[in-house]
Amino acid sequence: SAFSLVESIIVVICDNLDEVSKEQISLWVCFLCLALGFIFTTDAGLYYLDLIDHFATSIFLVIIGILECFAIGWVLGADKVRGYINQVSKYQLPPYWNAVIKYFIPIVLLTLLVVQVIQEFQSNYGDFPNWAIGIGWSIVILPLFVAIGMAIIPSEKKPTNRFNGVEQ
Questions:
Q1: 166, containing H or E segment
Q2: pTM for this structure?
Q3: Residue pair 13/155 in contact by the 8 Å Cβ criterion
Q4: Predicted confidence band at 19 (pLDDT cuts at 50, 70, 90)?
Q5: How far is it, in rounded angstroms, from Cα 79 to Cα 101?
């Protein structure tokens, strides 16, 4: 699982930086992950693991789920995605899948997110101090800013649309 996490980061960087080799990017990503991982080897390692796990799973992953539903349902188009999946898979998605991916799942996830954020502001998770809660929120906010920045900054490459085989 660690390989797939690192490889996904490397692929995104490689797609956006032609002038740097995949080997150099791999070295720096793995070095950064190693350096960040040292915090978990300290006496407070479980403390930080609990904090990061809480914010990553209860807030960040829910936000990512909402964004994925938006991208699949509205940006790419639920009909196109369902057609592609039905074309290449032995499992066929029914027509109501479009409504589920566009409306039902985002509404459920947004409800869960709102409830969780309200709970976060009512009291600190696990009686963590405010500075630790700040670290937790940075786990949520910083990657979102990076993703938004990457989406806003124009890329020199023209992405290929896998659903109809043409450049966008």
A1: strand 166-167
A2: 0.78
A3: no
A4: confident
A5: 11
Residues 6+ away with beta carbon under 8 Å from 52: 135, 136, 139
pLDDT digits (tens, 9 = 90+) for 114-130: 999 999 999 999 889 99
The phi and psi torsions of 19 (rounded to 5 degrees) equal: -80, -10
95 token code pair:
């027509």
**Cα torsion at 10, 16, 18, 19 (round to 10°)?**
-90
Residue showing tokens 């409830």 = 115
CA-based angle 144:145:147, to the nearest 5?
65
d(CA 92, CA 36): 42
Amino acid at 65: G
Contact (Cβ atoms closer than 8 angstroms) between residue 29 and residue 10: yes
